[in-house]
Amino acid sequence: MTTLQQSDHGGDVRLTGISKTYDNGFTAVRPLDLTVPQGSFFALLGASGCGKTTTLRMIAGLEEPTTGTVHLGDQDVTGLPPYKRPVNTVFQSYALFPHLDIFENVAFGLRRRGIKSVKKQVEEMLDLVQLGEHKRKKPHQLSGGQQQRVAVARALINHPKVLLLDEPLGALDLKLRRQMQLELKRIQTEVGITFVHVTHDQEEAMTMADTVAVMNQGRVEQLGAPTDLYENPGSTFVANFLGTSNFVEAEIMGRAGDALTLRAGDGKLTLPADRCSAATATGGKVLVGVRPEKISLTHADDAAGIADGRNRITGRITESSFIGVSTQFVVDSPLCDAFEVYVQNVERDARLVPGAEVVLHWNPAHTFGLDAAQDIEAGVEKVSEDAAA
Amino acid sequence: MRWLRKNLVVIAGLITLAYLLLPNVVVTVFSFNKPKGRFNYEWQQFSLDAWKNPCGVADMCGSLSLSLQIAFWATLGATALGTMIAFALVRYRFRARGAVNSLIFLPMAMPEVVMAASLLTLFLNMGAQLGFWTILIAHIMFCLSFVVTAVKARVMSMDPRLEQAAQDLYAGPVQTFVRVTLPIAAPGIAAGALLAFALSFDDFIITNFNAGSTVTFPMFVWGSAQRGTPVQINVIGTAMFLIAVLCVLAGMMVGRRKNKTVS
Question: Are residues A209 and A100 in the same domain?
């Protein structure tokens, strides 16, 4: 328990100017600074190959940084081998020792540190993850979810300053994954240890983490609380990688108080100035973004009933798919050829079928503005990538 | 006819087994023979004489003990070296790794007689005294390739993350090797060692060339076959066979009990 008490102060993970270039010349991580506050649940989110796992491995000591330093609290651990760092890892596909039973797997770290009486601690830890009766089984006799819990127990029993999780839920099926997300969150709250979680699953990151760092091509694109990232993305990559976004190119016409007036095609849109991360000079181009679930759909015949002050765009429905809680529409408009709109199935309008002329409208407060000089498609998940993951 | 069609696979299997085991049966049966002349080639009558007095033939048990010693040390040497080579080949990238990878198989591919003669030439040119040490060196040499092959297959299938996990859990390099790497590689190493023992114990050609005046068990059997075969040779053969079978059975029983306790 002493390690736990020591870590109560200044247990931040601090990465300073850290980068990694492999011998073959591939740069996995570009110089980045990152501070993970003590006791937080921190997620590194990104597609495969974005450098998130390499960053994690540099904290663990399994990868040597090309430049930069790693600090745990006040201690510089950059030069320390993994077995001397007060950090433990839950590996992707768990890496449980196949020749040892569950009890010995969990006891491994304690024994290596020369602790003789491990029985009580190990049994307590196995009870915490509800595997007490399986302690004499070998790892291959457990299900995926059980193996995952053993991996967590094996790391947590050492009371590390930081627990690193490398895609720990990747091998589980969807339902079990949801369950384990809540379970991990519960354990983290209970033990109060800093968790650094690497994942490519945006929902997983948003569900579990206090802070999410979105990584792309070896850089941190944006860092913040899940709601901030989702509601106010700073780049098209973040906007597309976290959920789905619709974009319209627009020109800034002027400013009225806190709001920017924009012209998009023939229409007029309003954007709160503090939600625009691009330059706000009149005449400048911006990308106007809005999330599909913020948009309301009204049939063109009822357009007169739409409240004033809402952003509106006209279009025609090209596709609709019913998925239970909501219906997802694709709307073709002169400004954007595939507007995605999610409508809750509360009061379904039978006229909203493919071919119908509609008006899309939304509260301007849900609009965000981005620099127009970037790829609108950045971060859009490709179907093939999804299948591979 | 239908019965035949149904049981064809079983019949074919039994015939193959018989084909494999018949020589062993002959060896065993003739270890209970009481031959008339010096040759143990015709069945005369049942007798336990040879089993009661297995070392009754001059020099035979001496040669057996020598063969066992050589096999033991050759296994030890070849397994230690071969394991290290296998790890180096799988885990590390070094210059000429590809060349070493193929050269290590050369002793397996070379005709044994040619190798035996060349080794003799080498030893004579170096002025080495032929005997126990030259036999041992030769045996380690040809066992090495087999051990490397067996261990390499195992090491290649090992997840390097297991060792990283051990390091992450406070095991230093030595601890990681002893506690994780070695136990997981053990089946491959054991297979290599068994192979090395079997190969060394009954090697005749290379041994015969490089033994000088030393006589190993296979050489003794060959030598006595010229003048007449004592029944004791069959006794030793049968005993070795039985020990091997017992080892296999014991291994299976240990494995089964392990599975029972955990499930």
Answer: yes
Residues 80-99 on A with a CB inside 8 Å of B are 81-84, 87-89, 91-93, 95-99
pLDDT in tens, A28-50: 999 999 999 998 999 999 988 88
**ipTM surpassing 0.95, yes or no?**
no
Q: What is the pLDDT of residues B144-181, one digit of tens each?
A: 999 999 999 999 998 889 999 999 999 999 999 999 99
Residues A177 and A131 placed together within one structural domain of the fold: yes
- Residue B118's identity, in one-letter code, is S
Q: Please check whether residue B170 touches A, CB under 8 A.
A: yes
Boundaries of domain holding A97: 13-236
How far B191 CA lies from chain A's nearest CA (Å)?
A: 17
Residues A209 and A253 grouped into a single domain: no
Cβ-based contacts under 8 A for chains A and B = 72
Q: Domain holding A338: CATH number?
A: 2.40.50.100
Residue A317, classed as helix, strand or coil, is strand
Burial A61-74 (b: 16+ CB within 10 A, else e): bbbebeebebbbbe
CB-CB neighbours of B235 under 10 Å: 26
Chain A residues with beta carbon closer than 8 angstroms to that of B165: 89, 91, 95-97
Question: Is A278 within a domain?
Answer: yes
Starting at the edge strand found earlier in the chain, the sheet holding A267-272 runs A267-272, A259-264, A246-256, A285-290, A368-371
pTM for the model stands at 0.78
Residue B86 has pLDDT above 90, yes or no: yes
